[in-house]
Design goal:
Blueprint: H1 2-16, E1 25-26, E2 31-34, E3 39-41, E4 49-53, H2 59-63, H3 65-73, E5 79-84, H4 94-102, E6 111-113, H5 118-122, E7 130-134, E8 139-145, H6 150-156, H7 165-211
Parallel strand pairs: 4-5, 5-6
Antiparallel strand pairs: 1-8, 2-3, 2-6, 4-7, 7-8
Protein name: Thiol:disulfide interchange protein TlpA
Keywords: Signal
GO molecular function: oxidoreductase activity
């Protein structure tokens, strides 16, 4: 019976699908504890964060945990955390979940416990797995329902996707230089065209003058 209940809840979540995500959501004031009892706050270390919402009863979620474990131990410019909701949406109770998760023997994954469903509610998480991109200020920028491969996660935090203020300023300056160079080039081309037109007009005038001249010899 419990298995059918979990399956039904999973199907309902998938059918509900993704909800459009608009303005940034501030998560900097949200503090959760992980499976080891340590507190965690978003944006505290000044780094962007990849967040994965998952459940122990979700096969797709479980198949992606090894990737998350490997990604967590790699050197990178962003943090990786995962979130589960013990006692909610068909998930195991807190102590049962901790015991079960410990048996998986993943050494690098940070698992946060959203026991009241607070974070899931703020981000309107309706599908497992769901990925969230949180910037270095602790604000959620993207909510992406469905599974993501490790390469796809890294791409979300590439320099082009997650540009810091300095990078943005440098890019704007570069763009301005390119625009100025483009304008100079356009002006030079216009000047050349005008000069060519003048020469053509002068040549035409000389040709007309020659045509209307009388030969003296």
């Amino acid at each position: 019976m419990k298995g059918l209940k979990k399956l039904f809840l999973g199907i309902m979540m998938l059918l509900m699908g993704a909800v459009a995500f608009g303005a940034e959501m501030d998560l900097s004031k949200v503090t959760l504890k992980d499976v080891n009892g340590m507190s965690y706050s978003f944006g505290k270390d000044g780094k962007p964060t990849y967040v994965k919402f998952w459940a122990s009863w979700c096969p797709i979620c479980l198949s992606g945990l090894e990737d998350i474990d490997n990604l967590s131990k790699e050197k990178k410019d962003f943090e990786v955390v995962t979130v589960v909701s013990p006692g909610l949406v068909g998930e195991k109770k807190t102590e049962d979940f901790k015991k079960w998760y410990k048996s998986l023997e993943y050494k690098n994954i940070k698992v946060l416990l959203d026991e009241k469903g607070e974070l899931s509610k703020i981000l309107n998480v309706r599908v497992y797995p769901t990925s969230v991109v949180v910037n270095k200020a602790g604000k959620a920028e993207k909510v992406l329902p469905g599974h993501l491969e490790k390469a796809e996660i890294k791409k979300l935090f590439s320099s082009k996707m997650m540009m810091n203020d300095k990078g943005m300023k440098d890019t704007m300056m570069k763009d301005n230089h390119m625009m100025n160079d483009g304008k100079m080039k356009d002006n030079m081309m216009k000047d050349d065209k005008m000069m060519n037109d003048k020469h053509m007009m002068k040549d035409d005038k000389m040709s007309m003058e020659k045509k209307h001249q009388c030969k003296t010899c």
